Amino acid sequence: MIDPQNIPPYRVTDRNLALELVRVTEAAAIASAHWTGRGQKNEADGAAVQAMRAAFDTVAIDGIVTIGEGEMDEAPMLYIGEKVGSGGPAMDIAVDPLEGTNLCAKSLPNALTVVALAERGKFLHAPDIYMEKIVVGPDLPEGVVDLDASIGNNLRSLAKAKKRNVSDMVLCALDRERHEELIAYAREAGARVMLLSDGDVAAAIATCVDGGGVDLYAGSGGAPEGVLAAAAIRCMEGQMQGRLLFEDDTQRQRAREMANGLDPARKLYLHDMASGNVLFSATGVTSGPLLKGVERPSATRARTHSIVMRSKSRTVRYIESHHSFKPQAEPAS
Questions:
Q1: Residues 145 and 207 placed together within one structural domain of the fold
Q2: Which candidate, 225, 234, 228, places its Cα nearest to that of 277?
Q3: Per the confidence metrics, is the pTM higher than 0.85?
Q4: Binding residues
């Protein structure tokens, strides 16, 4: 007979934790969805942060936020270093309570609430700066694309691996002035380009989803979002590389302090950003190709759509939840 006391706690609890994470992202999505289309991104983000922080109180972990809303003096909750959870295995937490605040405020597609967990010390400690990224999906030769290769060479290599033409490839990037050259060279190579106003976590995940409509995600975006994307890509067996980008010496020094003696400007591979056993959950706030948004059939009911993953099993689950806000009837005396 197996003695339960000899089984590491993480092995016992990680399946339940994956489902607990869904409750956390659902709570944040329902709270922020109230602000959809109202043009008030700060209020939407604040509602998501408060709901997510409260939901974490019920999760059985000894958690520390490593990717969060900023430094302790910048954020009232879910700040870097904050301890959350009701006690349990030691975990690092990466959160984006509302990925795509502008998307929510303008009722545009792909606003998500996102959480990832890893064993203590397994997430890259990244300051809130830019990260250069390149992402492709699963079932491709290792190193099929490279951060240091030209976008044209990457597209040709990817098309060859997929046994398709470059003209069939879709590059996704944020619609930013800094990406004008990337976009021009991709189109010159013959590829199509999908531009997003915000939401690069969803775009990175789309490379790994059947019917996601994205073959290659590239360009620069937030480093915290890069770590969250890496957690999802780990679970979905895709490939990702990144590199932190510094605007000044202050950012470089901050990254050096968080790098534990490693070169902060080194090329980052997937396991540099998210290693060990990783759990990931996201819930849609506004509908997009990845997830439907929060639906409110009535004032007392809501329906949410989430994706939850575990790197250990590489299982990806899509969960539709129906929520009731009716007060419970008092039992008969």
A1: yes
A2: 234
A3: yes
A4: 45, 69, 96, 99-101, 130, 176-178, 198-200, 222, 225
